[in-house]
Amino acid sequence: MFQKPFRIKSCNVMKGSERKRWKVLLLDHFPAMSPDDLNELLPSKGDVSAIKLHAHCGASVTVVTLSKNPMLFELDGAVYPTVYALWKKPDMLQSLTTHPQVFSKLKGGADLMLPGVVLRNGSQYGRTSFGNLAKGDPCAVDLTDNRAAVAVGKTALSSTEMYESGKRGKGVLVLHTYEDHLWQMGEATPIPDLGPPFPTGDDVQEGDQVWANDNDSNAGVASEDRVQPEVSLQDSQTVECKSNLESMDELLYYCFIKALKTSARNVDYPILVSTFYGTHLLPGVPAGHVLDLKKTSYKKFGQFLKFVREMGLIDVKQLTKGVESIVSVCVDHPEMRRFKVVEEDVGYGGEPEGGGRRPYEPPQIEELYLVSAHTATFFKLFGYGKSSPLSGPQVRQCLTKYVKDNGLNRDRFVLVVHSPCFITVS
Asked: What is the pTM of this model?
């Protein structure tokens, strides 16, 4: 969200009534906050300002600053604390912990993948392993050696869905990180040392694999410094290991980004949602897969578009009452930059019987002749009627047989002495 410079539209000192409104918003989003916590973030007396800015992906964001340090930002009606606020109040958000190697990828615009989430060593893997988060909840990301937040975002799945996925797929959609342009708006203070997130001795489990969602520069590093590729649809075994719901969600997301990057790349927007889905998204379904919207968690394409719109990938509007159109695409979005087509043979539909996808066979074109009214009497001798289609070899065969049966051979020439119709043969 803030990896690239943004444009500030307005900056105003926050009045008392506006501060009260923001305190109400904070209590709505974070009910556990005490009055002292609210006053520390939004003091009644102090240099508190509201800045409205336009991000590079097209999103409109309102940022609240305290003494020029950004403390909160509002995006699409949701309120998120910045790393500055979380350094003051580390318990304001639930956190997911990852390795320091992954943070460099998060700073580059990658999202946090579940394989990169580190759980407490020795704890039993269960439904509470990822806390108590709902899908879309604000979430912080910290590191194994320091509980100070290094990134803020929203969950891509609920805690239960994270558990049921078997630590596969996206965990956090990152919106703001340490050292991004929002952090640079403030005093640019370094990360404070708040101690490890786990008690001493709870180190990373041996064999834990770590990677973020970044195709361009390998999204993370395994525990033995081996490069781990992003999960792709080309590996059918990986897809089969996932739950049907997650696999179909991933397939839909993959085909959507692929359509934006390939067939719809040079489309003149706006384009009807129905046209985009039928003309660009469906033809990009990889061979051997069938996309079924009813088997996704979104159920309807409109709900999925709402999700990607919140990510800042596209903008959707009703240009005609009741008819939605995609009006713009954020081509500089990190998801667009990272995406690469992984399969070679692309097509829509299921796998044919017998396994594998049938290779494309071009149509066979053959030149044929129709028996006309003038030649119908002749070809009738061989069982062909008017308008019967004949190939070149069949016509030649009829003529050769007629010549031989009537003894019309004269060396290399043919003599016609009597024929039911006028035929010149040489």
From this structure: 0.49
